Amino acid sequence: MAENCLFCKIASKRIPADVIFEDDKVVAFKDIEPQAPVHILVIPKVHIPTINGLSDASLAGHLVLTATSLASQLGISESGYRLVMNCNEDGGQTVFHIHLHILGGHQLTSMV
Ligand code: AMP
Ligand code: ZN
């Protein structure tokens, strides 16, 4: 838990979020400013500022498998979706606690 980290505060329920899934390692909640009809963030409960610091292969896999499972539950597995993790300035990262975006529910456009 890092002081002054927004997503640590969401993971520890110190600030509210629209949580759709949680287990012992991850939390998934709706993005506050959705960029697509489905826009969910999956975060680890541990504080890792960027994907450069993600060294736990089991956790990395769990983040991805949680996202694919949620995509299925949300009914976008067949229509399609995108998983995105932004890193640092050029990647457009704004919250420095890693998060996997699940984006779907319509035709997504440019990657950049
Ligand atoms: P990124 O630009 O990849 O760091 O993404 C950060 C994401 O967090 C953006 O899509 C924001 O809309 C989202 N976000 C910021 N604050 C909150 C919040 N309190 N609850 C849910 N999502 C948030
Ligand atoms: Zn954090």
Short key terms for the protein model shown above:
112 residues, alpha+beta, HIT family, subunit A, five-stranded antiparallel beta sheet, 22% strand, globular, binds adenosine monophosphate, binds zinc ion
Question: How is this structure best summarized?
Answer:
By secondary structure, this protein is α+β, with helices and mostly antiparallel strands.
Describe the structure.
The chain has 112 residues and is α+β, with helices and mostly antiparallel strands. It has one domain (6-104): HIT-like (HIT family, subunit A), CATH 3.30.428. Helices cover 24% and strands 22% of the residues. The chain contains three helices and five strands. The chain has helices at 6-11, 57-73, 88-91; strands at 19-22, 26-30, 38-44, 81-84, 100-104. Strands 1-2-3-5-4 form a five-stranded antiparallel beta sheet, covered by helices on one side. Strand 1 and strand 2 form a beta hairpin. Residues 6, 17, 29, 31-33, 41, 86, 92-95 line the site of adenosine monophosphate.
Termini separation comes to: 32 Å
Helix amount: 10-25%
Point out poorly predicted stretches: none
Examine the coordinates and then state which fold CATH places here, giving the name of the CATH topology: HIT family, subunit A
Bound ligands, each once:
adenosine monophosphate, zinc ion
The shape, in one word, is globular
Write the CATH homologous superfamily: HIT-like
SS element count, helices: 3
State the name of the first-level CATH class. Answer: Alpha Beta
Number of domains: 1
Structural class: alpha+beta
**Would you identify the CATH architecture?**
2-Layer Sandwich
Radius of gyration from CA coordinates: 13 Å
What percent of residues are in strands?
15-25%
Q: Average pLDDT, to the nearest integer?
A: 97
